[in-house]
Amino acid sequence: MGLKCLVILFGLLKFCELNETIHRDTLSRVANSKATGGIYLTKWNRGLERGHQDTKKLEHRFWPPVQRDSRFLSLFTVVTFPNGGCAGASGDNGTCMTARECTSRGGSANGYCANGFGLCCIFMTSCDSSTSENSTYFVNSGYPAPYEGTGSCELSVIKAHPDVCQIRLDFDRFSIAGPEQVNHVCNQDQFIVSGGNPIPAICGSNQGSHMYVDAGIGTINPVKLTFVTSGNPFERLWKIKVTQIPCNTIYRADEGCLQYYTGVSGQLRSFNYHPVTGLQLSNQDYGICIRMERNFCGIQYTACADTVNNRSRAFTLTGNSNNPVNSMIGSGSGANNCANDWLLVPCAANVGRLQPAQALCTDRICGGTFSADLSMQSSSVLSTVKPFRLWFHTDNTEAPADIGNRGFCLNYIQQPCTNNLI
Ligand SMILES: *[C@@H]1O[C@H](CO)[C@@H](O)[C@H](O)[C@H]1NC(C)=O
Ligand SMILES: *[C@@H]1O[C@H](CO)[C@@H](O)[C@H](O)[C@H]1NC(C)=O
Ligand SMILES: *[C@@H]1O[C@H](CO)[C@@H](O)[C@H](O)[C@H]1NC(C)=O
Ligand SMILES: *[C@@H]1O[C@H](CO)[C@@H](O)[C@H](O)[C@H]1NC(C)=O
Ligand SMILES: [Ca+2]
């Protein structure tokens, strides 16, 4: 798909059509629309302000070389550009297209794109709707005002193209009621994703987080995003960007990754993590993947700084974390094993651990301190198992043994293929 524009008289007038070839004989049609004061003209007056110089630049950029000699085209120039993503004036992501196309597809124009030839079309929708537009924002009823009511609010996401394999959800805003205080189960509000691979329901505060949903191959049932709200009044606010990811792209997440991070360093947080107000969610079971960057052979994890609490709560999965709790490791059923809730870090070992213990490594880590050894002292933890992946699991119970756990926040840094890392 693409947008083609006919530029007349060095850009003083522009006529754009989505995906439609403009021939010389289209000119009469253009002339007609001009004569009748066609809908295009008023919408493109920014072209008039931009004037001569910009248009000259555009000619160099877009003018197909084969047409350069044509005397006809010295007056009439055809420019094309892809229907790609664009940034709207509001900062939202949109799709570049003509004003007419944007209106007919149910979007709203928000700023210019493609050097002023296209409009950035933003798609925003709320409860009980469906979308097949890429980069649609799913917002709460009444957005940007919060929604205090209860009920169910659903968006069906239909593939924009059969060749879409994944749906990425970006939680630009995500604030619904958190889990109950005893067992941390989301029983008041819930965000549920269905129709794709199994995804745990979440609740609470998740702004800045993301999820990948496997949409399957071919055209199958839509993926449904549902907010169920119940119980006490709560100022619920959400705005989720829904991006459709084609199968054969480099930015597609690996199979089985609910979360997928790229880059040499970054930060991983469990859902509803917050050192003070967060509570680790029960009934979680998912993979977190970090793309192996070129020439990196290992990955090191360190608990985030907790600047609020006296004792860091950046990794509190098990025990009563109102008191200091040591790290726990391994999959046995002993007091210092991780039988119920854990973060699985494949063959994890503390950084700087003295030989020969270096040869030993553990997989599950839990407790109230982040370390691959039993310890009250937090440590950086290294894993060289590839691909880089973590699994997070919680059961449906906290009380009475587990109290006030927040979940985890870890910073990761990939380690170069030196120092015996292969
Ligand atoms: C737009 O592009 C599609 C796919 O490339 C094509 O099937 C369709 O005929 C085109 N429409 C027009 C009006 O050119
Ligand atoms: C959706 O938009 C994103 C970002 O612009 C882009 O990478 C992706 O290829 C688009 N998906 C489809 C199906 O066009
Ligand atoms: C979407 O918007 C963000 C923030 O404005 C920007 O960083 C990102 O590149 C945009 N994506 C596309 C495909 O335009
Ligand atoms: C912080 O912890 C230390 C050691 O456990 C304790 O001595 C101190 O009183 C605590 N401070 C606060 C403000 O709780
Ligand atoms: Ca638990």
Structural features, described:
Disulfide bonds join 186-203. This is CUB domain-containing protein. Pfam families: CUB (PF00431), CUB_animal (PF26080). By secondary structure, this protein is mainly beta. It has three domains: 2-123, no CATH class; 126-252, Jelly Rolls (Sandwich); 265-416, Jelly Rolls (Sandwich), CATH 2.60.120. The chain is 9% helix and 37% strand. The chain contains four helices and 26 strands. The chain has helices at 27-35, 39-43, 45-62, 99-104; strands at 2-8, 13-18, 76-82, 85-87, 93-97, 108-113, 118-125, 129-131, 136-139, 151-157, 164-175, 190-194, 210-214, 223-229, 237-246, 259-261, 265-269, 285-290, 296-303, 315-316, 327-329, 342-350, 362-367, 381-383, 388-393, 407-416. The strands form four sheets. Strands 16, 17, 18, 19, 20, 21, 22, 23, 24, 25 and 26 form an eleven-stranded mixed beta sheet that branches. Strands 4, 5, 6, 7, 9, 11, 13 and 15 form an eight-stranded mixed beta sheet that branches. A four-stranded mixed beta sheet has the order 8-10-14-12, with no helix packed on it. The two termini are 44 Å apart. It binds 2-acetamido-2-deoxy-beta-D-glucopyranose (NAG) (4 copies) and calcium ion. One 2-acetamido-2-deoxy-beta-D-glucopyranose (NAG) binds at residues 85, 134-135, 160-161, 164, 243-244, 246.
